[in-house]
Design brief:
The structure is a single chain. The protein folds into 2 domains: 161 residues, Rossmann fold; 124 residues, N-(1-d-carboxylethyl)-l-norvaline Dehydrogenase, domain 2. With 296 residues, the chain is an alpha/beta fold. The protein contains 11 helices and 8 strands. Helix 6 links the parallel strand 7 and strand 8. The N and C termini lie far apart (61 Å). The chain is globular and about 60 Å long.
Length: 296
């Protein structure tokens, strides 16, 4: 199959990273639909203009003629994003669903796409999208995954790898990993904010380094906390999908649910991102906490 037109359904961090990598190819037409495009001053609209991506007014309009649709919305919008293309999807079009959603959620999205003649590929990005962008490791599942893999690799998705002929395996892999990775972010955030209050952050960091050696624990901790501040809302949605994944296995999703709540509350302290030093970042968050407590 030849891919000439690519639609980015959702144009946040992942969509922009992939578009920037593909934009250098003169043989491709790139377009996007994102609800935030309606606001010309939004970061999404500015990014689309900078990358010279065709901006569409509706999802159906955007779907017309697209050979490959890359869905990169928030986890909570996985199903509605797929359903939004009804009436516009080209028969045989590849629908690459990169969203961090539970196996059951992916299955419902797959039914929406396959029911209108598209080819649904469950895809899980297994690392941060930067710095590798289009070459990032991606697991592919679904009955069309084997056939679509060489098409994606030809476009530059060199980290793409076949996972399973069945939907669910790639997303389960991603979300079981997220319980650990996003959980670590939440644990480090909570641990060091409390440690800073008690004045024992140096001792805690030294102990962590003894157990889990790292050349720069303060720098690593700052990075992990910054992810919650910058992307906590999106991560919380992902972790609520992880809750479904864990509960499907017959377990109480205590850790996943707690991580979701911690991630959800951290973007309120995003102003602390301006602090390049771990201690100053912790102090900025704690100062805001103190102000909020005093106002109650």
């Amino acid at each position: 199959m030849s891919v000439k037109t690519i639609l980015f359904l959702g144009f946040g961090e992942v969509g922009q990273a992939l578009a920037a990598a593909l934009q250098v190819r003169a043989d491709l037409t790139l377009k996007t639909f994102d609800l935030n495009l309606a606001d010309a001053s939004s970061a999404v609209a500015r990014a689309a203009a900078r990358l010279e991506i065709v901006r569409c007014r509706t999802a159906v309009e955007a779907a017309h003629g697209a050979d490959l649709i890359i869905s990169a919305v928030t986890a909570a919008q996985t199903i509605s994003a797929a359903q939004s293309l009804t009436g516009g999807l080209k028969r045989g079009a590849i629908y690459l669903d990169l969203n961090s959603a539970a196996p059951g959620t992916k299955f419902e999205a797959a039914l929406a796409i396959e029911g209108t003649g598209g080819r649904f590929i469950e895809a899980s990005v297994m690392s941060p999208i930067y710095p590798q962008t289009i070459a990032a490791p991606i697991l592919l599942s679904g009955r069309h995954a084997r056939d679509v893999l060489p098409v994606l690799q030809g476009l530059g998705f060199t980290g793409a790898k076949f996972c399973s002929d069945s939907w669910g395996r790639a997303s389960a892999t991603k979300l079981c990993r997220s319980v650990m990775i996003k959980g670590l972010e939440a644990l480090i955030t909570e641990s060091l904010l409390a440690a800073r209050f008690h004045g024992v952050e140096d001792e805690v960091l030294a102990s962590l380094n003894n157990l889990f050696p790292h050349p720069d624990w303060p720098g690593y901790a700052r990075y992990m906390i910054s992810r919650t501040l910058e992307h906590g809302t999106r991560r919380a949605e992902e972790m609520f999908e992880a809750v479904k994944t864990v509960e499907q296995a017959g377990l109480s999703a205590l850790m996943a649910r707690a991580t979701a709540h911690r991630q959800a509350e951290m973007p309120a302290f995003a102003s602390a991102l301006r602090e390049a030093d771990l201690i100053r970042m912790l102090d900025a968050i704690r100062a805001q906490l103190t102000q909020e407590e005093a106002a109650q």
